[in-house]
């Protein structure tokens, strides 16, 4: 009965969309091809497996202490697999260096090797997931306020070595999976109070990056992520937006746009078209800033919708890689994965269902009223019927049914963790 209802609703939606020149079957096929890169760090509040017992540093914070955090690799993998089973489509997994399989070995950041990720490579293959990667400069005794831009040569070399090794790990991942692993470099480097050395730290960061990227690889791609400020580093960020755009454009590197890393009224969606003219591809960290870079769970909101619409309007689905980046420790963590991933897909489906050809025809003819009217009408076209069909086709719970699944996993698994 339920299935029949979904099919009936889809048939009506299909006709309704056809009337505005949109092919819903084609949209379903396109959405099927869009892989989100799921961030591994939502399952354990960005803790990782180094067993240092240290706090999360580097200007980021996971607030809340909802019970059930993944405490080890097996739990993290089980949680990700569970979340994945409730998200339609095939997706990637984004690992941070601190999630390596170190066992009882004490492996410092400048000692990491591809072998520490062999287990992940194997697991990901079994799961049908491809891996992306991140160097980790936070939560370490040598993190301080400055890493790759540190004037202390020894500390700077330590982090250069770390990042160089991380690229070698990403290369191995890419080779094994027959598809480039995308490696993100985000460093928190900055200053709490005013600095009189803005240029000096940026010169050092530029030099470190040049050294890090000196090795050319064929199976990994680099991306670089800016931000406005970190907690405790409010006055100056070495890797600002301007810094990385200049660096990326001059070196042909991908820019990572984290939706929480800009001034609150700045449109991240508007950046896609400009970046794609000067940099080869774009990486996204889809998040939800609340008053600041708070990393709340992504939801369907105007910002995420506009972002997805821009990707489609720029015809850039193959050039924009969509990763998630949030960490809410105050609610069920598996549920947080599912809500954020599905919200991103709901925005994508609305973007794909936009009656773009007609809208562009209106615009070309200077018909501003008609363009505005259709944009408004498009908001209430039955996209949810197409979304339900997508879930049904993918064998995942339709609509709010996934809530019970998350609750069941909580009862059976995560609530038993101390
Ligand atoms: C921090 C950046 C960065 C991190 C992850 C854990 O502000 O957004 O991407 O969230 O690397
Ligand atoms: Zn980010």
The CATH class assignment is Alpha Beta
How many whole angstroms does the radius of gyration measure? 22 Å
The named CATH superfamily: Divalent-metal-dependent TIM barrel enzymes
Count every beta strand, where a strand is a DSSP E run of 2 or more residues.
12
Question: What do you see in this structure?
Answer:
The chain is α/β, with parallel strands linked by helices and 418 residues long. The radius of gyration is 22 Å and the shape is globular. α1 (2-19) packs across α13 (383-393) and α3 packs parallel to α10. The model has no long low-confidence stretch (mean pLDDT 97). The chain has a single domain (34-355), classed as Divalent-metal-dependent TIM barrel enzymes (TIM Barrel, Alpha-Beta Barrel). β1, α3 (73-84) and β2 form a beta-alpha-beta unit. An eight-stranded parallel beta barrel has the order 1-2-3-4-6-8-9-12, surrounded by four helices. The two termini are 41 Å apart. Helices cover 44% and strands 12% of the residues. Bound molecules: L-rhamnitol and zinc ion. Zinc ion binds next to loops.
List descriptors.
418 residues; TIM Barrel; 12 strands; 44% helix; globular; binds L-rhamnitol; binds zinc ion
Secondary-structure map:
Layout: H1 2-19, H2 24-33, E1 36-39, H3 73-84, E2 92-96, H4 118-127, E3 131-134, H5 153-177, E4 181-185, E5 190-191, H6 198-212, E6 220-225, E7 236-237, H7 241-251, E8 254-258, H8 271-278, E9 282-286, E10 288-290, E11 292-296, H9 302-313, E12 320-324, H10 333-352, H11 356-364, H12 368-379, H13 383-393, H14 401-412
Parallel strand pairs: 1-2, 1-12, 2-3, 3-4, 4-6, 6-8, 8-9, 9-12
Antiparallel strand pairs: 5-7, 10-11
Helix pairs in contact: 1-13, 2-10, 2-13, 3-10, 5-6, 9-10, 11-12
L-rhamnitol (RNT) is lined by residues 41, 46, 60, 134, 186, 225, 227, 258, 285, 293, 325.
